[in-house]
Structures are given as structure tokens and as C-alpha cells.
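pinned: reference chain
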Amino acid sequence: MRKMNWGNWPEMAEQLGTKEIERTTAQESLQVMAARLLRAEKVSRSGNWELDLRRMTISGSEEAARIYGLADIEWPLDLIKKIPLPEYREMLDSSLRKLIEGVGTYDVEFKIRRPDTGAVVDIRSVAEYDQQEQRVFGILQDITERKEAEEEKRKLEAQLLQSRKMEAIGQLAGGVAHDFNNILTVISGFGYLLQAEMAKEDPRKSHVDQILLSAGRAANLTRDLLAFSRRQEINLEAHNVNGIVTESVRLLERLVTEDVELKILLSDVPMVVMADVTQIGQVLMNLAANARDAMPRGGTLTIETKIVSLDEEFIKSHGYGQIGEYAVISVSDSGSGMDAFTVEHIFEPFFTTKEVGKGTGLGLSMVYGIVKQHNGYITVRSDLGSGTSIDVYLPLVESGTRENSLPAEEIRGGTETILIAEDDPGVMKLTTEVLSKSAYTIIEAHDGDEAIRAFAAEGPDVDLVILDVVMPKKNGREVYEAIKEKRPEMKIIFMSGYTGDVILDKGIEDETVEIIRKPASPLVLLRKVREVLERGPA
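pinned: its C-alpha cells
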């Protein structure tokens, strides 16, 4: 037996003390590292887990247990298999089996239902397999917030894409309507001239009447297209929304069938908006007609008005809007409802769920365009079998009304000289013939350049200029500016299938600009020409 050298006791004690200090320091370092790891897991919302294939046990860190909704860090295998939603279980088993067999990796995303709260949580889990230890080491992370952010981004991108698509369709619709209005101007204009020359007993008169009737129906379609594309002229005045609805009730009662109950719920608070009464009335008629068609066996149609405040939450959820106070007109029915696909496409022109010949598909697209022209918004809530509710939001303004009426003028001809700039040959021929028959002297120009040259040559003798807005070489705005530069007092009338806001789009901001909307009857043309000529200096 080795003897202890008690003479070295102080030295030995010192060595033992040093080792104890080193052991304590190492333990403290491990505790610090463990605390740091715990904090890192909480911050990153991730935890680690381990599957022991020899003992068939599974455990995880405190954060992993919290994410899974478990109280302990030792987890029963049967419970762990049940926590993922059923549709993900087979995928998880297959991914783990491929990892252990060395034929695949384990990087999966799935959803779980926490056993403690029942909440559904999005999870991402990544793992590696240690063949020697026969253990699977992995991490799992709560990615619910990331998934929600990705879904919100997807919705916003879809809304932006839909908005751009609707804008493109609107531009196309406006262009089609513009060209078609030129054609209708010629058809209806010459039809009116022919009708005026016929005796009442002329057997051909009924044929002309039918032509004019069809041209009128076609003109209504182009107005719907222009309303959808926001190219329709509107006359905004201050009106109480309740008054607009009340005025529309009489027509709505005729529109719905006897087995449909019409309920009108008006707000007690006056709601003043800037609106074109005729067009908002048309919105109500179209929405009510669609509601009626959705209730072939009867039901309830409810029109309600109220005031709401649009906030950031509305803007975030819908992808559009301005914060502020709005009057809301809600049109709800108890009908068949719509699926998600129909709701998504409901405002697109020519989209319809009705049988062939039962609808043009322009009704709701026109509603959409009118609401947008009023700086408003429109939302749809619907489910199959649960009816539909459409809300129209119109921005509130301070109370005030404005009357706007034009005195009736006697329509007669004159001896003045009129310069007409129009690139469509048919429209030019019609306009020239109508005005010439009323004794006006006409100067024709078939494009913008020709109009400027004609005015330069005949300017002193010209009393009025009629300009098409869209022309080759130089458009109506450019001709307008050239003429106004030479004769600021010159009286000018624009003719266009676009009207109103398109004039402003072309850079003409003069509020005194006169506009004739195509298709216009000869009577309308003569009235406007006489009205402008007899007015004071421009």
C-alpha cells in the first residue's frame, strides 16, 4: 500500500480546491449556455426534439413542448402521432421513414391542433438521423405568423391583379363603346332624318321605328360599358342617400314580383353624398333585379342605409379604401347565394350565370363603374344557399344642395358658319347634313391638322367649332388649344363617345367646355348648337 505523504497536504488541498472551482465554473457555464439556448428558442419560436429508436421514446425542449401544447418534455408517441392534422400524418410518417432509410431528407411543413387549447398552428420541422446512435435529432418551429403574412401577401397580390385586370377590361370596354357610338350616331341620326321625312301612313315608317328602337337599345349597352369603364358623364350634386332610396322605391316595387317582400330600413341620420341621382337609382335597380332573379320562389329583399367609418382594418382586409365616413346602401336577399368563383368575377363585363338570352352580363359591371365614378367602394358577401348582401359605400360630405337646370330653348336654324372636325366619314356626313338643312354654313375637316389649317384660313368667318375628341394627327385638345390661342373667345363644342372625364384626361380643364355625347339625335345636336351660338362670348 502506497503511503500518503502528509507533508504535501497543503499542496494537495490546493489542487483539489482548484479542480472544484473548475468544476463549478464549467457547471455555471453550462447553465448560462442552457439559459441562452432557452431564450434563443423562445425568440425564434423554435424548439428541439429527439426520437430514440432503441427505446422508442421521444422528448423535446421546453419551447418545443410549449409549441406542441404539451406540459412535459417527455412525450407519449401515440399522442405525438395524433397532434398533426389527419391530412398530414401519412406525409410525416413517409418523410421520417425515408430519413431513417437514407433515401430522403426531413424538412416538412404541416399543421397541428394543440391538445391544450385546440388552436391550429403551422409547423416547420427539420431533422437528421444518427445511425450509430439510432436517434433522430430535429427542430420544430412555429411558423403561423409567417404563413399568415404569406397568405395576406397572396391576397393583396390577387387583389392587385384583379384591380389591374378590371382596369384593363375597363379601358377595352371604353374603346369599344367609343367606336360603337360613332356607328350608332350614323344609324340613329339618318334614321331620325328618314323618319322625319316620312308621312304617318307610310308603310316603311314602322321599319324605321324598329331601327331606331334597336339603335336605342344598343346605345344603352354602350352606356353600360362606359359606366363600367368609368367613362360615362355624371352630374354630381349633394343629395341625401335616404331620399335617393325613397324616390327609387316606387320603381323597385314594380320590379320585384309579388312573392318577394321588399323591406326598406333607412337610417335616422341624414347622409349627404355627392351623387348623380339617376345613376345611383340605376345601381339600385340593377342590384334589386339581380336579387329578384336569385329568389325565383320568393323571399325577402332588404335595402338598408347606414353610416360607417372605414378604418385601416377595412383597407387591410379589402386591399383598397380611404379612411373616413361613408354612407352605405346595403341590398340583401334571401336567395340562392353565390360560390366563391362567382363572387370573384361578378363585376366583370359579360360575366353572367343566367341562361343565354336572359342577360347581357353588363348590369353589375355597370354598377361597379358607377360606384367607382362616385369615389365609392362596393363589397359582396355571399354563400351558396345563404343569400347575398352587396354594400355600396359613398363618401359623406357636408350638407348642402345645388339646383341645376337649363331653360328650354326654341330650336331653330341660323346663318352662322360652323367648322366641323370629325374623322369618322359617317358621323361627318350626318352632322353636315343636319346642320346644312338648318341653313348653317359648314366647313369640313377630317383630322386635327386639317382643322387647324381650315381655321387659319377661315377663322374670321367661323362662329362655332365642333371637335371630335379623338382624331388622327392632332386630337381635340391640341386643336382646341391652337384655336384658343388665336381666338380665345371662340365657341367650341366637343363631340365624343367618351365625354366628361375623358375631356379632362386629354388635358382640357375649362369648366365652360360644351359636350355632345354620342350617339346624339339631330334634335340634340341642333339644340346644343343654337344654345351655344346664342350665348354670350366664350
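why pinned: The first strand starts at residue 46 and ends at 52. DSSP finds 16 helices and 18 strands in the chain.
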